[in-house]
Amino acid sequence: MKYPDTKIVAFCGGIGGAKLALGLNNILDQKNLSIITNTGDDFLYLGFYICPDIDTVIYTLAGVNNPDTGWGREDETWKTLDVLKELGADTWFQLGDKDLALHLFRSKEKRKGELLTTITRKITNKFGLKTNVLPMSNHAVQTILETENGEISFQDYFVRQKCRPKVSNILFKSKKPVATDAVKKALSDKNLDGIIFCPSNPYLSIDPILSINKIKKLIENQKKPRVVVSPIVGNDSVKGPTSKIMNEMGIEVSSVSIAEHYKGLIDGIIIDESDGEQADKIKEMGIEVKLSKIIVKTKEEKTRLAKESIEFIQEIAS
Ligand code: FO1
User: Fold this and answer.
1) 41 within ligand 1 shell (Cβ under 6 A)
2) Which atom from ligand 1 is nearest to the alpha carbon of 51?
3) Composition of the chain by helix, strand, coil, percent to 5
4) Cα 242 to Cα 42, 212, 227, distances in angstroms
5) How many CA atoms lie within 13 A of 60 on its CB side?
6) Which atom of ligand 1 lies closest to the CA of 99?
7) Which residues pair with 145 in a beta bridge?
8) Does the beta carbon of 93 sit less than 6 angstroms from any atom of ligand 1?
9) Is the CB of 231 inside a 6 Å radius of any atom of ligand 1?
10) Which of 97, 159, 198 to mutate to test the pocket of ligand 1 (most atoms within 8 A of CB)?
11) How far is the CA of 95 from the centre of ligand 1 (A)?
12) DSSP symbols for 65-112
């Protein structure tokens, strides 16, 4: 079943969250889906303006993402990277040839003075998508990790140092932490049916978005159901370093902790059916619980989880 009249705002980071974003994109009318995307991972590399989470979402929805890595493009070639290596340039962040073309385009548009929202709209259109992929901000918000080795910027920590340093705190630095007009409009839409937090890393991928006060306030004041799909199964993350970071920051690795983290911003949480024993503790917080299989690999599984998220929103609303 499709939901042609259901209007949803989803919050999303990169690879993990994009799986649910794809499922939502498959069952909703694309123009009724707004995906507010983390830009805290954005950085300048070899002179290019790189937005990994925006690109992962767009490539995934367009069906051109690399299915093995989750980031970058399928059928990629690496000729430029090889020459860069010969020249002794930085190559710890791998940019394929096709991917590089996108960074060239975005960087050129940025230099012209275009807003990141406008550039992202142009790119989604070029990939044949009607989905509203919305950067959380047009201004830089930088995710910085406080670690045993001092402060480290996101990509340095995540890619160059492979998430190895022990994290004690996460900061979001911005000179101008303002929400874009498009984000404010999507979250204030009277016809909105609900909000979904994709199963992205809450600390690294969703918190940068919530660090923008106006966005947090609009979610807090939202009357329509707000649900999150937990990124944790048992005591481990479905994807990436979520559980490692939780352990290091002294947070118990469980879906209960995820519900606590989003308290005040969500009405419901979807947790894995194997974690059913955690449901009562979450319900005591006034948060509704739905059990499901939250590890999704195939297109069918992603679509099924998306449908369950919409049904959960409808159940809470009724
Ligand atoms: N992740 C890696 O682990 N190694 C890479 O070399 C790498 C390159 C890369 C290039 C473009 C892009 O859009 C994403 C890329 N990523 C890479 C993924 C990315 O750094 C992270 O997945 C996200 O920032 C976290 O959501």
Assistant:
1) yes
2) 13
3) 45, 20, 35
4) 19, 21, 19
5) 31
6) 11
7) 152, 170
8) yes
9) no
10) 159
11) 9
12) B-TTTSSSBTT---HHHHHHHHTT---SS---HHHHHHHHHHHHHHHT
What residues form DSSP beta bridges with 194?
A: 8
SS3 38: coil
Q: pLDDT by residue (tens digit) across 51-97?
A: 999 999 999 999 999 999 999 999 999 999 999 999 999 999 999 99
Model confidence over 204-258: pLDDT tens digits? 999 999 999 999 999 999 999 999 999 999 988 888 899 999 999 999 999 999 9
Instruction: Tell me the C-alpha distance between 206 and 226, whole Å.
Output: 14
Q: How far is CA 84 from CA 69, 73, 115, in A?
A: 21, 19, 29
Instruction: Please give the radius of gyration of the chain, using alpha carbons only, rounded to the nearest integer.
Output: 19
Q: Is 42 in the pocket of ligand 1 (CB under 6 A)?
A: no
For 232, the token pair is: 């944790």
Distance CA 118, CA 87 (A): 34
The torsion angle over the Cα atoms of residues 177, 133, 208 and 174, rounded to 10 degrees, is: -30
Q: By alpha-carbon position, which residue is closest to atom 18 of ligand 1?
A: 71
**Residue 91 Cα to ligand 1 middle (Å):** 12
pTM of the prediction? Answer: 0.97
Q: Which residues pair with 11 in a beta bridge?
A: 36, 197
177 in Cβ contact with 212 (< 8 Å): yes
Q: At 97, which amino acid appears?
A: D
Tokens 């919305």 label which residue? 134
Q: How far is the CA of 212 from the centre of ligand 1 (A)?
A: 23
The closest residue, in CA terms, to atom 3 on ligand 1 is 159
With beta carbons less than 8 A apart as the criterion, state whether 57 and 13 touch. no
Instruction: State yes or no: pLDDT of 1 exceeds 80.
Output: no
